[in-house]
């Protein structure tokens, strides 16, 4: 369990402080990736059941699993399905759930996976190595659909211009090709800190892997599997994800505002709060950003499960708004 971690887990100390893992506890790492959070939780003496939808991540974790002497179980599955998977494993409730949302450093670093515009590779972006590729999407979707995806999931202010350029440049099969199309459409100055292709790649990846639906369903699944007093720690990397997490926890903690002064306060009309906030949102400090630039956009939110029953529904689409 002491093998070197290939990538630096973001906000690791803060995540561990929020989770407070202890010997004898059982924790879920819903996004195993390169195993950074899992290794740290194992060092506390807790057991970890780690999920990942990426078969490469699961294969890469087998050595750690074998060395854990039964303390680690790897499950190739989406974290949104953790409740059903845990039930199959004979596990009813857990003491902690950790989610590190979005693409992993490991995936970005592998050019053949097609997630990154910084190195050329096939335009793939599939987390599960199956189904529709990013190349399929950009070559088959109509201009309006591409523009909607870029606007809604990438928050690209010039989505229509980029979509028009993509359609005009088809067929597009390589990451470098798509990045060049976007840069020419938006104008690119080499000294600019943020590459203009960032939002387009983000949007296509999120769309292709249904990442926002996965997050919404995963939060509701965590609510079902956490025992009273169990902790939820979620690290997100852009505003859409963080809004979903924030809205979910605000709803489930009963912290949503009541009615206006002209309407009755309805905060006592719904289910009992299933979570309580542990601390304010946490972001990386300057030292961590210097050590790990990926942490620059990270936000951590931590909450503790109450003894209330799970709510009947997830935050759903409203979490993407406001």
Name the features.
single chain; 322 residues; alpha/beta; Rossmann fold; DNA polymerase, domain 1; 8-stranded mixed beta sheet; 14 helices; globular; disordered N terminus
Structure description:
- The protein has 322 residues and is α/β, with parallel strands linked by helices.
- Among the domains are: 1-95, Rossmann fold, CATH 3.40.50; 117-208, Putative methyltransferase TM0872, insert domain (DNA polymerase, domain 1).
- It is 40% helix and 14% strand.
- Strands 1, 2, 3, 4, 5, 6, 7 and 8 form an eight-stranded mixed sheet that branches.
- Strand 1, helix 2 and strand 2 form a beta-alpha-beta unit.
- Helix 8 (143-154) crosses helix 11 and helix 12 runs parallel beside helix 13 (239-252).
- The radius of gyration is 20 Å and the shape is globular.
- The model is unreliable at 1-5 and 314-322 (pLDDT under 50).
Q: What name is given to the CATH topology of one domain?
A: Rossmann fold
Task: Find the count of extended strands (DSSP E, 2+ residues).
Answer: 8
Structural class: alpha/beta
Computed Rg: 20 Å
CATH class annotation of one domain: Alpha Beta
**Span between termini:** 42 Å
Proper CATH architecture of one domain: 3-Layer(aba) Sandwich
Write a concise synopsis of the structure shown:
With 322 residues, this protein is an alpha/beta fold.
Question: Which helices and strands appear, and what pairs or packs with what?
Answer:
Elements: H1 12-19, E1 26-29, H2 36-43, E2 47-52, H3 55-60, H4 62-67, E3 72-76, H5 82-88, E4 94-100, H6 105-109, H7 134-140, H8 143-154, H9 159-169, H10 175-186, H11 198-208, H12 211-225, E5 226-236, H13 239-252, E6 275-277, E7 282-283, H14 286-291, E8 299-305
Parallel strand pairs: 1-2, 1-4, 2-3, 4-5
Antiparallel strand pairs: 5-8, 6-8, 7-8
């Amino acid at each position: 369990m002491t093998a070197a971690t290939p990538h630096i887990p973001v906000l690791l100390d803060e995540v561990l402080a929020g989770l407070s893992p202890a010997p004898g506890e059982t924790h879920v790492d819903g996004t195993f990736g390169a195993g950074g959070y899992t290794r740290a939780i194992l060092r506390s003496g807790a057991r970890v059941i780690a999920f990942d939808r990426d078969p490469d991540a699961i294969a890469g974790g087998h050595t750690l699993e074998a060395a854990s002497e039964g303390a680690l179980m790897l499950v190739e599955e989406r974290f949104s399905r953790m409740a059903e998977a845990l039930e199959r494993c004979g596990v009813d409730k857990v003491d902690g759930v950790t989610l590190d949302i979005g693409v992993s450093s490991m995936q970005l670093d592998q050019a053949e996976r097609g997630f990154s515009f910084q190195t050329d590779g096939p335009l793939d972006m599939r987390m599960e190595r199956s189904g529709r590729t990013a190349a399929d999407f950009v070559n088959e979707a109509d201009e309006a659909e591409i523009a909607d995806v870029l606007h809604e999931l990438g928050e690209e202010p010039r989505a229509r211009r980029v979509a028009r350029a993509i359609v005009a440049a088809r067929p597009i099969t390589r990451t470098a090709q798509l990045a060049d199309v976007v840069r020419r459409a938006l104008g690119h100055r080499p000294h600019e800190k943020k590459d203009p292709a960032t939002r387009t790649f983000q949007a296509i990846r999120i769309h292709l892997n249904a990442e926002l639906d996965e997050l919404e369903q995963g939060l509701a699944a965590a609510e079902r599997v956490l025992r009273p007093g169990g902790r939820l720690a979620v690290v997100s990397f852009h505003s859409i994800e963080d809004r979903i997490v924030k809205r979910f926890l605000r709803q489930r903690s009963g912290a949503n505002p009541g009615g206006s002064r002209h309407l009755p306060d309805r905060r006592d009309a719904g289910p009992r709060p299933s979570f309580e906030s542990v601390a304010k949102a946490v972001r990386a400090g300057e030292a961590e950003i210097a050590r790990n630039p990926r942490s620059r956009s990270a936000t951590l939110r931590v909450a503790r499960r109450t003894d209330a029953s799970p709510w009947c529904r997830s935050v759903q689409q409203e979490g993407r708004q406001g």
